[in-house]
Amino acid sequence: xxxxxTARPPGGPxxxxxxxxxxxxxxxxxxxxxxxxxxxxxxxxxxxxxxxxAIYRRWPSKEATAVDLIVQVSVAAADxxxxxxxxxxxxxxxxxxxxxxxxxxxxxxxxxLLAARAYHPGIxxxxxxxxxxxxREKVGAILRRAVxxxxxxxxxxxxxxLDFLAGPLYWATIVRQAPTDPxxxxxxxxxxxxALAA
Length: 198
What we know:
By secondary structure, the protein is mainly alpha-helical. It is built from nine helices and no strands. The protein has helices at about 15-35, 40-50, 50-55, 60-75, 85-100, 105-115, 120-150, 160-175, 180-195. Mean pLDDT is about 80; it is low at about 1-10.
């Protein structure tokens, strides 16, 4: 998350939002182009039009930079608007997440990050833990609202329900690379809602 231009870490310099934003954009463009293994902070700084010191004023290492920025984007993409119904919430979540996964940068970055799990277990574990926990908390709001409205029974298995929400979309978008199809989202939504209510 970018820090305010007026925020000053104890004993440290003011961090400018514009520089942070430029570094964030440059990081993702570099990651999409060369992958995590070949990514260097020097190249990110050059692409952002700033010095490497600007990165180290914000993040202590390449891994810390990657984790912080990827978690920010991934968690923000898990926002769940309240449509007033379980079906509406699930459909909105599937549509919104599909759009995020098909973004040109994301579609190039995600396979590399999944492959990096074998070579960079530290970053993979950190990303999995932080993204998993924070995204599940946000997306879990869909199911908690449904229980509060009476759309789902009070004893609904929320953890399993979250897997039901994510699984079909991941399979269709990442594994099968199926084209965007509103009818597919509608059918998946109906199946997910039926499974949750069963």
